[in-house]
Amino acid sequence: MKKFAALFILAIALSASIGFGTSEAAAWPSARTTLVWHSAAGSGGDIMLRSLAKFIESKTNFPVIVENVTGASGANGWNYVARSKPDGRTVLGVSSTFIASPLQNNIPVNYTNFDPVARLFIDPICIYVGGNSTYKTLGEFFEDAKKRPGELTLTGGTAGNVEFVAARGLLREVGVDVPIVPFEGGSEGVVAVIGGHVTAGVGEYAEMASSVEGGKVRVLAVFNKISNLDVPTIEELGYKTKVEKFRGIVVPKSTPQEIRDAMFKVLKEAMENPDFKTYYTNNNMIPAFADGNEFYKMMERQNEEVKASLGGSL
Amino acid sequence: MENFLIGIQALLSIKSLLAILAGVTWGTIGGIIPGINATIAMALLLPFTWGMEPQVAVMMLGGVYCGGEYGGSIPAILIGTPGTNAAAATVFDGYEMHKKGETGLALYLSLYSSVFGGLFGAVCLMLMAIPLAGIALAFGPAEYFLLALVGLTLICSLGENNILKGIWAGLFGILLSFIGFDPFAGTPRFTFGILDLTSGLEMVALMMGLFAVSEVLRQAQNFDINDKYKFDKKNDTSMPKLSVFKKFLSVNIIASVIGVIVGAMPGAGATVASFLSYSYFKRSSKNPDSFGKGNPVGVAAPEAANNAVTGGAMVPLLALGIPGSNSTAIMLGALIIHNVNPGPMLFVDHPEIPYGIFSSLFVANIMMIFVGIVCIKCAVKITAISKPALFACIVTLVFTGSYAFNSVHFDVLVAFLCGIAGYFMRRMNLPHAATVLGFVLGYIMEANLRRALILTRGSYLKVFLNSPITVALTVIAVISVLWPLVGPLRRSMKVQKTY
User: Fold this and answer.
1) Does some domain include residue B367?
2) Interface touch B320/A191, C-beta < 8 Å
3) Cis upstream peptide for A29 (omega within 30°)
4) pLDDT tens profile B58-115
5) A90 is in which domain, residue-wise?
6) Which residues of A168-196 are buried (b: 16+ CB within 10 A; e: fewer)?
7) Is B499 part of a structural domain of the chain?
8) How many CB pairs under 8 A join A and B?
9) Integer Cα distance of B73 and B379 in angstroms
10) Residue B498 domain-assigned (yes or no)
11) Full domain range(s) for residue B443
12) Choosing among A76, A165, A283, which should be mutated to test the B contact, i.e. which has the most B CBs within 10 A?
C-alpha cells in the first residue's frame, strides 16, 4: 500500500514537472533524473556518476539518482536507456567498455543508438614494470625484448579492452615478440607484475597510483600525459600508437537539442566545481571535456580500432 | 604503537561503535537472506556512508563484511540453502546436523567458528600484513591453477562410494563455468546467441537452484500429506555448553590459517577458502565418510575459514592499495568518495583509517557474538513452521534472492533450471556438491592454466615445476586423487585378511 502511495505521489510530481519543464526548455534537470551505469555500485564509473550526481543535485531541487542496471555484459543497462523516453531524465554514463563490449558480445545496441552529450575524462593508460625491475626506460625494455624474442611477457587487462588494444598496437609498431597475458581486470595484472610473474604491463594509471607512490611499481611511459608524473609519453618517445580510455555522458537517440545543450552546460560547470575537481584529480583522471560531436567522432574511431583488434589469435 | 592508539581513539566514540553495531547487524541479516552476500550488503549500505567521516564509514563497512560472511551459515544449516556463496560448504554437514536434530550445536558452532576465524584474521592482518602480502605475490598463474586443482580433487571423494559419479558431476560444473566470456579471445562462448549468458551463469542463482530448489522438490516428493501439521519438535535448538567448543579449537586454527592465506590472494575469496578448508579436513580425517552426514567439523572448518578471509582480504588493499575482492573494492570505493587514497601511503597520510579498520574488525567480531545469538534465537523459530509453508517460503526466497542479486530476470530462470537439474542429479546419486565445486573452481583453474601456459610458452611440465609452491601443490593433488582409491583398497584387504 505504501508503495502505491509513493508511486502516486511520484506520478503527480512527475506530471507537474512535465508542465513546468516544457515552459522553460533550457533547464536541466527539470525533473527527477536517473543516471544509469551498467556495472555494480562501487566500481570506478559508478563512483564518478555518484560524485557527479551530488553536484547536479546541489544545483536543483530534483533528486538525481544513480541506478546500476547490470548484467549481460552491459547490454541490460544500455538497452534500458536506449529504450527510455528521450526527455533528458534518463542519462547514461559510458566508458570505453561501451565500445568494446558490444563488439565482443554481438550486443545489438551500441553507441550509434544514442546521442552524445559530452566527454568528461580520459583515464590515463601507462606501461609499467615492477619496482625492482632492471628496466628504467621503455627503450631498455624493448631492446631486451628484441634480444630475447618471446621470453619477456606483458599483461594488458582483459582481452579486447582498450589497454589490450594499446598493448598489442605498440608491440606491433615496435616489432617485438612479447606474448600478452590477459588478466581479469587491471588490478590482478598489477599484482602479477609486482609479484614478478609477468615482466611488464599496460594498464590504467589509477589502478597502480598508490603502488607507484609506495615504490612497488615503476611507470616507464604513459599514453596520456599525466601532469604530476615525470614520465615521457609514448608520443614523445616517437611511437604512433594512441589510446584514449574515455568517460562520457550520452542520452537516448532523438533527445531534443535544447535539453542536450542544457545538460552540456551543467556538465561543463561540474568540471569546474571544486568538490568534483578534488575527486577527479585525486583519482588521476585527466579532464578532457569535449562536446558531443567531438565525442562521437572519437567513439567512431575507437570502434574501428577495437574491431580491428578482435578475432586475431593471441 | 602510537598508531594503534589513534585507531583505538577513532574507535572509542559512540558514533563509531554504533556504526559497527549497525554494520554487523545489517551484514548478518543480509547474509541470512539468500541473494544478499557480504558484497551486496556493503554496496547497499555504501550511499549511506557518504555523510560519515571516512574512518567511521570503513568501520561500518568492516562490520557488514564480518556479519555477512557469518550470516550465510544460518539458512545453510536451517533450510539447506546457503545465504551466501561462501556458506555453500556449510550446507553439506550443517543441514545434515539439523536433520539429525543437532540444530543448536550446528548453529552455535558456526557462530563460534566464525567469531574465532574473524578474530584470527584480524590478528594476522595487524601483525603480518606485509609478509601476507608477500605470500599473495608469490602466487602467480601456475600457483593459482594448482591451488584450484587441489581443491577440485575433492570431487573424487564427494561421490561417496562411487568416485566416477563425483568426477562426472564435477566435470559438469566445470563445463557450466565455461559459459560466458572467454577472457583470452575476448569473445563470448557457449552462449548460443543468448545475450544474458555473455556474463556467464550467476553463481548465486546456480547454487540456490542446485541446493535449495532441488531439496524442496525431493522433500515435496517424499512428503506424506498426514504429516502436514506435525511440527518437528525433536530438534535441540539450545546453546551447547562452552566446553563443547574446546575440541574444535585445532580445527578452527588450521581453518583460519587457510582462510587468511586464501583471503590475501586477489581473485580467490571466501567461497574458495571455505571449500579448500572443508576438503582439507575431510581428506585428513580418520573417518572421511562421516563428512556430509552431519560431522560438526564440516561446519567448523568452512565457517572459520570464510570469516578469517575478512582479515586476509584487507591485506592487498592496505599493503598494496589493490582490492583483492569485490567486498574490498567497495571499501576502496567508500574511501575514494571521501577523497582518501588507499595504499601504502595510507599508513602515513591517514593512519586512523588502517588502524581503525584493524580495531573495528576486533570489535565487529565480538559484537557478532551477541548479534549472532539474537539472530539464531529468531531463526530457529523456522523449525516450528509446517513443512508446506516452509517449502513455499524457501522457494519464494530463492527466486526473489536470485533476482535481487543483479536485478536480472534471467537469473531466476537459471535458479529454476539448476533446481530441476539438481533434482535429477539427486535421483541419480550424482553429488550436486561436486558440480558446485567444479563451477567455483573451474574458471579459476582454466584462466590461470591458460595464463601459465602463455608464460611457459606452452610447456605443461614447466607449469607443474614452476616453483617450490607448484611442486608441493602437485604432490598434494596427486595424493588427494589416489587417497580415495587407496582407502577402500586397504579396507578390502583387511577384510580379506580376516577371512
Assistant:
1) yes
2) yes
3) yes
4) 889 999 999 999 999 999 999 888 888 889 899 999 998 998 888 899 999 999 999 9
5) 2-18+29-122+244-309
6) bbbbeeeebebbbbbbbbbbbbbbbbbbe
7) no
8) 170
9) 11
10) no
11) 2-492
12) A76
> CA–CA distance from B339 to each of A93, B121, B332, B400 (Å)?
21, 27, 10, 36
Edge-to-edge strand ranges of the sheet holding A217-222: A180-181, A154-155, A200-204, A125-130, A217-222
Domain at A67, CATH number:
3.40.190.150
The Cα A211–Cα A207 span in angstroms is 8
Please report the ipTM that was assigned to this predicted complex. 0.80
Report the alpha-carbon distance of residue A61 to residue B267 in Å, rounded.
Answer: 42
Angle, vertex CA B329, rays to CA B150 and CA B83, nearest 5: 60
State phi, psi for A58 to the nearest 5 degrees: -65, -15
For residue A180, give the 3-state DSSP assignment.
strand
Section B421-437 average pLDDT: 90
SS3 B188: strand
Residue A218 is assigned to a structural domain of this protein: yes
Q: Are residues A7 and A73 both part of a single domain?
A: yes
**How many Å is the Cα radius of gyration of chain A?**
21
Q: Which of residues 169-188 of A touch B (CB under 8 A)?
A: 179-184, 187-188
Contact B320 A46 (CB under 8 A): no
The single-letter code of the amino acid at B225 is I
Which of A191, A192, A208 minimises the CB distance to B316? A191
CA proximity to B268, closest of B105, B415, B135, B101:
B135
Q: Return the C-alpha cell found at B185.
A: 579471445
Distance CA A15, CA B122 (A): 53
Distance of alpha carbon B10 from alpha carbon B48, whole angstroms: 19
Contacts of B461 (CB under 8 A, 6+ apart): none
User: Do A260 and A206 share a structural domain?
Assistant: no
A55 touches chain B (CB under 8 A): no
DSSP calls for B285-313: -S-GGGTTSS-THHHHHHHHHHHHHHHHH
- 3-state secondary structure (DSSP) of residue B434: helix
Total of domains in chain A: 2
Q: Is residue B97 part of a domain?
A: yes
- Chain A hits for B342, CB-CB cut-off 8 Å, are 210
> Is the pLDDT assigned to residue B487 strictly greater than 80?
no
**Residue B49 identity:** T
pLDDT-based confidence at residue B330 (cuts at 50, 70, 90): confident
Q: For residue A145, give the CATH number of its domain.
A: 3.40.190.10
Q: Closest chain B residue to A38 measured between Cα atoms?
A: B406
pLDDT digits (tens, 9 = 90+) for B177-216: 999 878 777 778 898 888 888 878 988 889 889 988 988 8
Same domain, A278 and A168: no
Q: Most A CBs within 10 Å: which of B143, B181, B403, as the mutation test of the A interface?
A: B181
Residues A9, A73, single domain; the answer is yes
**Helix, coil or strand: residue B183:** coil
Give the residue from A183, A186, A76, A191 showing the smallest Cα distance to A130: A191
Q: Which three cell numbers stand for residue B69?
A: 560472511
Number of domains in chain B: 1
Q: Taking Cα atoms as reference points, which of B463, B258, B273 lies closest to residue A197?
A: B463
CB atoms closer than 10 angstroms to residue B162? 13
Please check whether residues A10 and A114 belong to one and the same domain.
yes
Do residue A49 and residue A83 come from a single domain? yes
Whether A14 and A90 share a structural domain = yes
Residues A106 and A138 in one domain: no
